């Protein structure tokens, strides 16, 4: 009877050793053949999750600004809107100012130079005033496609703080890059810069009006035809900006 029990215990121990050996060999084979791949997949997924979280936070900035303006903009409000812990805002961006700058650079908020000044025959063959007209035409089209941006621009007309200044800085840098593409950066004869700023002020005011009242001076700014008329008038005004060049020579 005692020998029978010893035999049973020995059998159990041998069985357990066999199981452990098989599991060990299986784990080793998994490590050699697929362990590294699984690790890479985990790292890749973590990176993807991080980027998605960053994007949710950036998108939340636009919604908060559009709904409540700059006075309502804060880390806690953005974190609630994005559905994340506010610690992630500091971890990924450093703080609110850096986050607002990141939002300003996003395609959802502001058009990139390629959208307003594409490398096309229109700009290669056109003269200076025609290039300026095409730029404003593309600018209007790009902003009209971004209703949230129009809401934020409307809020900027009521308050101007550090956060608004950051968005303005991003916009101005983009516009300057556009002018460099059109080779207008060095053309300041007859105070061309001021003339362009006046055009911008007028166009931006009309764009914001299109979101608020929708109609100004009999023009229905919801209609494409109204913007076609505005485009034609910008062409006339752009020609006027270049007429005071020496010997009526426009900038190439």
pLDDT averaged residue by residue: 81
End-to-end separation in angstroms reads 109 Å
Tally of helical runs: 11
Radius of gyration: 31 Å
- Poorly predicted runs are 1-7, 247-252
> Which H/E pattern describes the elements?
HHHHHHHHHHEEH
Notes on the structure:
The protein is mainly alpha-helical and 252 residues long. Helices cover 74% and strands 2% of the residues. It contains eleven helices and two strands; from the N terminus they run H-H-H-H-H-H-H-H-H-H-E-E-H. A two-stranded antiparallel sheet has the order 1-2. Helix 1 crosses helix 8 (147-156). The longest helix has 67 residues, at 2-68. The radius of gyration is 31 Å and the shape is elongated.
Output the keywords.
74% helix; mainly alpha; single chain; 11 helices; disordered N terminus; disordered C terminus; two-stranded antiparallel ribbon; 252 residues
List the helices and strands and how they pair.
Layout: H1 2-68, H2 75-82, H3 87-93, H4 96-104, H5 113-116, H6 121-125, H7 128-144, H8 147-156, H9 162-181, H10 192-212, E1 215-216, E2 219-220, H11 224-242
Brief description of this entry?
The protein contains eleven helices and two strands. It is an all-alpha fold.
